[in-house]
Amino acid sequence: MTRSSNLFRCCFLDRDGVVNREVDYLFEPDRTVLEEDIVPALRSIHRHGFLAVVVTNQSGVARGMYGEADVHAVHARIQQLLGTYGEKIDAFYYCPHHPEITGECDCRKPLGGMLRRAAAELGIDLSQSLMIGDRISDVKAGLAAGCARSYLVRTGYGSTTLRESDCSAVTVADNALAAFEDFLNAGTNGASGRSKQP
Q: Catalytic amino acids?
């Protein structure tokens, strides 16, 4: 926990392409493979007293491609794989909606609903926290929720995002470990400069 309050600092992580290798509409646990940097990233996150919380859009549920039980099964597999290294994700939050199918919601990134819900349920100080993702929607979600900084990583769809989008106002890192280390070097309040809304 932070020294100034009873609230936790948190590193919010997108799932596919950040925690595990990108697979379009992943729902099979046996196709789940960890990103190479995620174990050392989690070790650093936890060593510095942060929570590690996954926030992921899972529109495949709304599209009827898989069910919520499949989402939980993939999360259980991620925990199993991380457990072999003595690590874990502290909590998973997912949005099963799609605006064209289920209507508007407040949890689908780029909105910040999942992060705000996690903050309320887990006791997180969003102003002392960060978001790491591989899409612009991840960056926007972190900023919308009030995180100190939001990072776009080059893993997953990150390299494609950098090629195809204007990311001039986005804070970029090679991977989750590099993003978290940059956040620490900047200071927990993002003293070296916050990401800007792209």
A: 14, 16
